[in-house]
Amino acid sequence: MSALTDEALLASVPTGLFIAGSWVEAAGGRTFDVVDPARGSVLLKVADASAEDGMAALAAAHDAQESWGRTGARVRAEILRRAFTLVTERAEDFARLITWEMGKPLAESRAEVAYGAEFLRWFSEEAPRISGRYMTAPDGVNRLLVRKRPVGPCLLITPWNFPIAMATRKIAPALAAGCTMVLKPAELTPLTSLLLTQVLVEAGVPAGVLNVVTTTSAAEVSGPVIADPRLRKLSFTGSTQVGRRLISQAADQVLRVSMELGGNAPFIVCDDADVDAAVDGAIVAKMRNGGEACVAANRILVHRSVAEKFTATFAERMAGFVVGPGSEPGTTLGPLIDERSRQKVATLVDEAVAAGGTLVVGGAVPVGEGYFYPATVVTGVTADMAIVQDEIFGPVAPIMVFDDDAEAVRLANSTQYGLVAFVYTRDLDRALRLTERLEAGMLGINTGVVSNPAAPFGGVKASGMGREGGAEGIEEYLETVYIGIRDP
Ligand code: NAD
């Protein structure tokens, strides 16, 4: 339990930019409001950075790079480990803040804090494992030396949906690898990143290594930073639309990029699946984070022979979700992040129903304050509908029926995305056969959750490139350098 009252916790969150080890106001003196999506009220005002601030942050990261890159891996590891301990000790404060600014139920925020903190611990353990090799060349004469070094200053841009985990999934491997960075958190949920920065400083991150710029002018701030040759890496998590734009900007400097973009996960229930387990999995895959997750099941594909049973049980469970502010006990579904998101979700449902889909549960925008939308199930949808092709990013489950595995694979692969796919079957051979044909960077077999700090998270196709977490995660922040040595 946290000792802080709500007011004291909010008052303890820094609201400035963090540049070169100091909290400062935006150069233009501007601020913007951070809003509680459950009530529409202003939580705090934070600094609104301009391009000038972004460049000051990059300069600080550049100046700190040499010394941080030479800091012993054990020292970097111990800072990360201390950060893990501090975040864990303050888990309740982080969870409350996440619920206030992002909206999810407190229990889910607590789970996110545990998941997010784990990246700090995981990468504290990876830092000392960075290694190279010395070998004799195949000619038997020459010698090859291969070593790793930090890629250099990074720009990290994060989305609003997992305010702590999306930040630690980038910050932790960057710190472990010896990179300095500029973090640009989402303008809708910057508070968690600001508190996290305070905790990382307390853990010992030196001045200039981590710089944070909050802004409502993301493109204006990031553009000049990306165009500057001092920047060596861009790691972005967000929409495919913005990711595409950033990849083309990064091309000018041939900047290394990692892109964690949108998803449109198929959730396949085979005729031999344990239907009750599949319903449990689908509820988690669909409703975790209120459906506002890149790994959310976007399309539920069910074999005709089990479709009726699955749909009835699943719809009953969906109807049981309790909509309300995430901080209220009993709430199992918080608000969407803003009115724009709610309108998008409502339109996808309305259009699907107008085009012949059947509303089984939910589908009506509630009246009153906050950006709420109920758990919704739509059947009879077809592959050409926007509700199937687009990322829904809300608590809406479209259900489609298939007749054989080939059709399931064809439907599953029929969007531009390829982040994750879920398969429920009792036949392991079949599961493996299916997963080999599904176009996705991650596959879940008889589970609705794949995210794990020890595993490589990332997608294929328009879901992006690069991996976060696992042994792969630190590689994104390392260069491989080869030194040829004449025969001794
Ligand atoms: P978004 O693309 O609108 O914004 C993401 C971040 O980019 C924010 O910090 C935003 O301020 C910034 N941004 C927006 N326009 C920019 C521009 N022109 N130049 C530079 N920065 C810009 O996405 P969002 O709405 O915050 O997040 C939801 C999206 O993120 C969904 O598509 C979701 O699938 C995706 N996402 C992906 C993963 C993953 O790991 N693959 C994880 C979480 C979210």
UniProtKB/TrEMBL annotation:
Coiled coil, from the record: none
Keywords of the record: Oxidoreductase
Keyword Oxidoreductase included in the entry's annotation: yes
GO molecular function, one term: succinate-semialdehyde dehydrogenase (NAD+) activity
Active site: E260
UniProt cross-references to PROSITE patterns, sorted A to Z: ALDEHYDE_DEHYDR_GLU
Chloroplast listed as a keyword: no
Top-level taxon of origin: Bacteria
Domain Aldehyde dehydrogenase, residue spans: 23-480
Family annotation (Pfam families): Aldedh
GO terms classed as biological process: gamma-aminobutyric acid catabolic process
Family named by the database record: Belongs to the aldehyde dehydrogenase family.
The protein, known as: Succinate-semialdehyde dehydrogenase / glutarate-semialdehyde dehydrogenase
Species of origin: Nocardioides psychrotolerans
